[in-house]
Amino acid sequence: MFKIENHYNLKGMVAIITGAGAGIGKASALMLARAGANIVCADLNKVDADNTAIEARGEGVKAIGVKCDVTSIQDLEEVVKATIKEFGKINILVNNAGGGGGGREKFLELTPEYLQKIYNLNVFSIFNLSRLCAPHMIASEYGSIVNISSMSSIMQSHNMSVYGSSKAAVNQLTKYMAVDLGPIIRVNAIAPGAIKTHALATVLTPELEEIMLKKTPMKVLGEADDIAMAVFFLASPLSKWITGQILPVNGGGEQDLEG
């Protein structure tokens, strides 16, 4: 008999979330904890990672914080080692850490070094950590990888060429990973619209917000929990027949400044 509660209960599963110290990453870590998953909070800021882990433990699960620069192979290896040492398995990976964009990329002023930096952060980190986690997911016979992309990956706006193209690469990487890692591991991505986080606050003005709201049928900017609920859906057995998909979560709008 089909029981809906069996499909949204993550009890006994283990989830790694990068960039878990704040914003979408923190909201996703806490959402998965509320569903019963044990949590590994990876973040460049160890204090923030630990604080999220403390909040996650308040949901009645086990959680640890790990310092991690996702552009460092050594750091990614340490996250996986710490996870296996503490929990013995890996089931869910949320590749959330990233950067760039915000309409600051004036094309004629960009350098190859900047491009390499953003691709290392937004694309290569996903490839590297997914490659490290996949064998453990296969061994546990359940795997879901959720990559955080961006609306910038599927639309165009000024001064976003490197960031937007890196997120487009995330989309295509997601689709190919789904083909290569199925059937045990599902791989999907979420493309957030404008989400009210600290990162967005650094560029948001009342004028810009008014423009965004005019382009958003829901007439409100998103919250980090809006993305976290989509992360939960894609991480859980509720989406057991969904893989290789890019899910826009943007209030139906055209805005592409998230953070």
From TrEMBL:
NCBIfam families: PRK07231.1 (NF005559). Pfam families: adh_short_C2. Gene3D superfamilies: NAD(P)-binding Rossmann-like Domain (3.40.50.720). Belongs to the short-chain dehydrogenases/reductases (SDR) family. This is 7-alpha-hydroxysteroid dehydrogenase. Keywords: Oxidoreductase. GO terms for molecular function: oxidoreductase activity.
